[in-house]
Batch of 2 targets.
Target 1
Amino acid sequence: MIQFTVADWAAWAPGLHEREAWQAWSKAPVLPAGDDTPALPEVPAMQRRRIERLGRMAVQAAWWCSCAEADGVPLVFASRHGDVQRSFELLEQLARGEPMSPTHFGLSVHNAIAALYSIVRGERGNYLALAAGRATAEAALVEAAGLLADGAPEVLVVVYDARPPAVYADFLDEPDPFYAWSWRVRAAGEGARLSLAWATDPAGEDASAHGIEVHRDAGASLDDDRGRADVHGIAASAAAPASAPAALPAGLDALRFLLASDCSREHRVDGLRWTWRRHD
């Protein structure tokens, strides 16, 4: 088990740009939809032109959450699919026998967005990029906990994802909206105090379609919860939670857990049961 404090957070998704909007969304979550893209005014135009839509979302969320006084903070960028649209376009060019752009190839690798962020921010600390399927958000926090244990005062965690090209539709096993969020994670201090535990769970995939269960505070409205479950497919109960197909991708549901009043969250995937708890 790991324990950590979320000192600050930021997020960006189509139609959800402000903290107040995200707080309201966490009480009645829906899949973000729309074509808007962050303007990213913090980044010089020459560099901004190289960043695709998903990268802009990730960089914007990270920028808003970063602390100017914290120098050399480790970065953990986590995305299940990454900028797969750019990779797919390169594969199409290769299949047609066309030359591939070295620049586009360099920007298609999984750590490209993290590298671009570190360059435009002038960050000199270490960064890593990871993907862990539907447990990508959990893996990012485990990596952050390791960095904190090694002595880092805090870690900037950025989780982001986007809709893959239509050719991959038959392989998708959860919703796939555009979104990005960032947490400033510390070992202790002021902020939301969370823990994350994991254990083997061979039957986990049979328990629910996407393996997400939600435990609400005793004071939460059962009527609100039932309405939320009916509309969004999220299992919710003030007593014993039930299971149902989750309407949110697992990575985005982790943000909802932070912002909502849930006391715990379970995510079953790939033979593991991940248990999130709040200790505020």
Target 2
Amino acid sequence: MRLLYFAWVRAQIGVDEERQTPPKSPLTVAEMLDWLPTLSPAHAQAMMQRNRLRVAVNQEFADPDTLIHPGDEVAVFPPVTGG
């Protein structure tokens, strides 16, 4: 999967994009958020604020039960506010 990170998530992990192969496929968004902290201490730090994160799969907002398949684009970002 192609992972994209935005805002403080990107700053904490240290990259804006990476390709990763999860331990199983497909997996849900919730399972992905459980797995990401195992990748590195930086990932673990960013995922400590998991309740503040939003996820989009293939540019569509996703809920915890949304399935992620090989080749999907997954964006992880804080909530967006507008004015």
